[in-house]
Design a protein that fits this description.
The protein has 475 residues and is an all-alpha fold. It has one domain. It contains 15 helices and two strands. A two-stranded antiparallel sheet has the order 1-2. A hairpin with a 2-residue loop joins strand 1 and strand 2.
């Protein structure tokens, strides 16, 4: 059934909760999907566990193409719907699919070719290098499917449908429980090999197969929600006008994710100088941290959709209310979720490894990251506002500072000059992220002031009751 939230009329706290809950549940299962991968990787060897950590930045690069364009498209579609321009919203969706496929080819081919050099740069050699290559090559080869899922979902999310992606992610988690061991270890019957053992490549192949299933489901849901309604084959032919608009909105988000990948490379580069154990510890601990951040991810998605539609309708007071409420909810979530994570940090790390040194290093990371946690909430909420009011340019510059520029100054200072060793990287993350968060908070407020001024000058500001059902409700 189509969703029926009135994003320009219903009370903001209720909307945030109803939109964020399905998204958070979905991303919980998505993170558990990754936890399953990490668990089975650890069952192969410590090298395999470290290989998945090394491949994480590669995975982010792939997702950046889809999730970045999807995020920008979500904002454009939400603004179009809020302003009553549904035909334009459909064209945004179709053109985003075409743009995403072009971008993923341009990114994926050189990435696939350069994988050996990338992993050698991260000090991988011998069996660790081969493990990383077995996993990453399959993931990169299947990248078009991963990208399309995020782009197709953008049209659903912009209409308030965060349930469909949730359903796909839950299904994917369930399927992954069975597919991972089957493809890793293979299947033989009476001495006949039915499925060969593929080790790390099997983990990656399971991901690609599940993403294919998800794409079929999301396309079917898009047909139900009519996100492509009235759009024939010609609607997918690249159009300069739409490519320019989607690119302008999506490029900062895509590059934000790209810099996240580069930032993970930077972190891995610094910690890899201290040996294999810190790399493995970081890979295990970051999975736990991701679980703690899941509810706030749902909040980010909900806020971006609410801001987009209400900005399109000129309802800036609702944009402000949504932003303030989401920051408060993020703080409540942080206290509620982070407390048990820290209390049970040691047994949680023990799920992934029984290596005492890896557990010790992982504990240090999690305890220090408790100081950093809310800064991620502040940054992501500010990014959602900037995206929703169609002023995303600063997202990229904040990301460059946070992921690349500042770490190359702060990390060496704390690890070597101060002499904190690998813990200097963890404390460096706190310094870098909090300075970025404070700037992002101030800039998001500035963007809202500009949006209010534009709504006043252009005469687009409407009262909630003056928005027609066709403007505020999905078809």
């Amino acid at each position: 059934m189509p969703v029926s939230y009135r994003l320009t009329e219903d009370p903001i706290p209720g909307l945030l909760t109803r939109l964020a809950a399905p998204a958070s549940i979905g991303f919980f299962f998505n993170t558990m999907f990754n936890v399953i991968d990490t668990y089975w990787g650890g069952r192969i060897s410590t090298d395999a566990l470290a290989a998945l950590s090394l491949s994480f930045p590669v995975f982010i690069v792939i997702l950046a193409a889809g999730a970045g364009i999807g995020s920008g498209t979500n904002a454009l579609i939400a603004n179009a719907i809020g302003g009553g321009r549904r035909e334009r919203a459909v064209h945004y969706q179709a053109q985003a699919v075409s743009l995403a496929l072009i971008v993923v080819v341009l990114v994926g081919v050189p990435l696939y070719i350069g994988l050996p050099s990338i992993f050698r740069f991260l000090n991988a050699e011998g069996e660790l290098l081969q493990s990383a290559l077995r996993y990453a090559r399959v993931i990169v080869a299947g990248s078009p499917i991963l990208v399309l899922n995020h782009v197709v979902n953008s049209g659903l999310t912009a209409r308030g449908d965060t349930r469909s992606f949730r359903n796909f992610l839950i299904l994917g988690f369930v399927l992954n429980i069975g597919l991972d061991p089957v493809l890793m270890f293979g299947v033989s019957l009476r001495g006949v090999t039915l499925i060969p053992a593929m080790a790390e490549a099997g983990i990656a192949l399971a991901t690609v197969v599940i993403q294919c299933v998800g794409l079929v489901y999301l396309v079917r849901r898009s047909m139900t929600e009519r996100t492509f309604a009235g759009c024939g084959v010609r609607g997918f032919i690249p159009t300069r006008e739409y490519f320019r608009e989607i690119g302008g909105q999506g490029f900062p988000s895509a590059m934000n994710m790209m810099t996240m990948a580069l930032g993970t490379f930077v972190i891995t580069f610094f910690i890899s100088r201290y040996g294999r154990d810190p790399v493995a510890a970081y890979g295990a601990a970051i999975r736990i941290e991701q679980i703690a951040l899941i509810p706030t991810i749902g909040l980010n998605i909900a806020l971006a959709t609410i801001v987009g539609q209400n900005n399109g309708a000129g309802l800036i007071d609702r944009v402000v209310q949504g932003y303030r409420t989401s920051l408060l909810l993020g703080l409540v979530i942080m206290v509620a979720v982070l407390t048990p994570v820290l209390l049970f940090a040691r047994p949680l790390l023990g799920i992934f490894t029984d290596n005492p040194e890896v557990i010790r290093i992982g504990l240090s990371y999690l305890y220090i990251e408790a100081v950093t946690f809310y800064s991620y909430v502040v940054i992501n909420q500010a990014n959602s506002v900037m995206q929703g009011v169609k002023r995303p340019g600063m997202i990229l510059w904040i990301a460059i500072y946070r992921q690349i520029a500042a770490p190359f100054v702060v990390f060496p200072l704390l690890t070597e000059t101060v002499g904190l060793g690998v813990n200097g990287v963890w404390w460096g993350l706190a310094v870098v992220n909090w300075t970025a968060a404070l700037f992002a908070l101030l800039h998001a407020r500035s963007c809202i002031r500009r949006a209010r001024a534009w709504a006043s000058v252009s005469g687009t500001q409407l009262s909630p009751r003056s928005v027609s059902p066709e403007q505020s409700r999905p078809e």
